[in-house]
Amino acid sequence: MQRKIVSLASINIDEVYHVPHIVKPGETLSSMHRQQNAGGKGANASVAAARAGGNVSIVGKIGKDGLWVRDLLASSGANTDQITVLDDTATGHAIIQVDKNGENSIVLFPGANYQINEEDARKAFAQYGTGDWLLLTNETTGVDEAIRQARSCGMQILWNPAPMPANMISANRPVDLVDILVVNETELLHLAQQLDDIDLYEGNDERYAKIAQQIMGLFGTRAIIVTLGSEGSVGLVRRASTNPHEVHVGSQAKDCNKDEVVVIRMECAPIKKEQIKDTTAAGDTWVGYFAAELARLQNGSPESVGSLASVTPAMVEHAMALATYASGITVTRSGAFPSIPVRHEVEAFFKRKELL
Q1: Using CA atoms, how far apart are residues 280 and 334, in angstroms rounded to an integer?
Q2: CA end-to-end span of the chain, whole Å?
Q3: Which of 20, 114, 286, 314 is least enclosed by beta carbons within 10 angstroms?
Q4: CA dist 198 → 10, 211, 259 (Å)
Q5: Which pLDDT tens digit goes with each residue over 93-134?
Q6: pLDDT by residue (tens digit) across 277-301?
Q7: What is the 3-state secondary structure (H, E, C) of 72-117?
Q8: What sections of the chain are H helices per DSSP?
């Protein structure tokens, strides 16, 4: 049985302005080109997961101005039956500056994304159950209730807590209920700085892995992935003692003791600097492909039976690799949805190790 992915998704209309450099305080800058695209971190990740072959359903809210975005989500292969259209609220909007090097700066107006409530979360998970995945970010309301409800249904939870709030810990966000955290290095440090007795390992080459391992110990997280931009990514995953059938996919996740935290390092995809156009959806593409590939690997895993849904180092490594190559293609294209590749493109790039 294929594991379902339900995405509590932010859905935005992106206004993208191409500029010589990111505007400075007090500066007025003329844009060289303007685009209007569909976007939102949750929507982008949902499209990526669907294009990776995942069985994806989206829970979200839009205004009437966003009907065309819903249509694009549906055309990407995601189920949009649980996207509610509001009469009196606009769809979320994002103002995005993209400079000549492909770097970006984003201002968000949440709009309908902030109308998701606890009742929406309860209704959303009625048709999902043990072993299915909840995929979510921090761009909507209702996140905490969704996590709690998903856990009560026996679902697995992958949280990309971006943007990272300053009160992640003091507000008692349910980090301890999450199976997999995916953060970038800045978000990891922001989370660590909110915790007592966390060593930040200043100046240590292994600092991100060491910080992530401390956080895993505090919250019991099954895996933490830290994306590092052009430096690739590092993943930490527990090798539980209940995985007798583990089969290694690659070279990194091997020769480890039971119950050990395995560290997996992944270089970025072989993209040339001159090929980079827009990094806006790179992280979201990574998250969506990672989630879909992990779900696919669990479908065929002999240790993932019934209520047992194993997450092994080998699964995580393989999913990280595919996600890395998918996001590599994304940065060579403009826009959010338009930049996200379909699976056969990623597999071809992964096989060739060169983007033509």
Answers
A1: 8
A2: 36
A3: 20
A4: 31, 7, 22
A5: 989 998 988 888 989 899 999 999 988 888 888 888 889 999
A6: 888 899 999 999 999 999 999 987 6
A7: HHHHCCCEEEEEEEECCCCCEEEEEEECCCCCEEEEEECHHHHHCC
A8: 41-51, 67-75, 118-124, 143-152, 185-193, 207-219, 282-299, 313-330, 343-352
